[in-house]
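Reading a protein record of the kind used here takes little practice once its layout is understood. An example of such a record is reproduced below.
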Amino acid sequence: MTDGFSLQMLIDYAETCSVDFADMLAFSMMNQDSFSTLEFRNALGSFATGVTVVTTALDTDCPVGVTASSFNSVSLDPPLVLWSLAKTSQSLTAFRDSGHFAIHVLSSNQELLSNRFARAGENKFQDVVWEAGTLGSPVLREYSAKFECKTVHQYEGGDHIIFVGEVVTFDHRDHAPLLFHAGKYAESRPKVAAEIISGVELEQGRFTEDFFLYLLSRSHFQTSRPTWEKLAELGLDQVEYFTISAAAINGPVTLDYLQAALQHTGHDPDQAKLDAMVERHLLIEQDGAYGPSERAREDFLEILSVAKAYEDDLLEHFSASEIAEGKRILKKIIELSGEAIPPLWPRPQ
């Protein structure tokens, strides 16, 4: 459970949030002889939970908030929800006496906010945008869902107080929720059907838009378009671009290296092309090896800037975990399909 958290953060988190986390620590302290602390912790971590920030205030100048994963629904009629807070929490008095609270279900991009409200003893609301809600609880601007509640019951629950609230107003947005599982933050994803659609109809001699290799190929051509347009603007062709790229990354490089590294692209140079690039002041030749000229480096940087800006625009539509998973899949495809193709970047010895 400590991945991404210091021990003190974990203790603070347990004091201010869910029954599960606090009970885990208390149980481990009292039952070390009969249970494996690590195994029990791992067992508790098998249950994935959402992450919430619960807020209240005795007056508008003193907002209070904690991170909690103990949130749960109780009833639809009347609309009731519950959550719990450790008796040792510094925020307990405010929640017991205020008569109201607001629960914010966090979105997948709100890890930092979760960490902020999980810590004790700091100004948690500094630089956080909020306003007073219907009952007076602080309402954060960003969330996946929000429930403003009137406190209707408080129950003893061992070393916790269980708060039951009647929902007086709520809101939800189309944001993926933040999850916590096995000691780490996680994201939810819809489970796909077990059947994989091939996208190839051999009997009809055609393929569909679900053909995986077609999707890879089309995405390559579409995402390369801004780069090719910049090449045309600079008066460079694709052979020159690939040659300058390889030379800039690994240069100076020989003709043999360039042909081996770039043959799979269909844009590898021959000797005549290299000579022409030297003559155009795109390459510098020394002892049979070629490196990019100052002009070529400037052009390459300009092209790379265009590609990076386009990448940034595209990746805004994906979460960090989706990007990481996409890269993992693409690297696996490259590994499986490119055994005979030398890597562009030298492998460490």
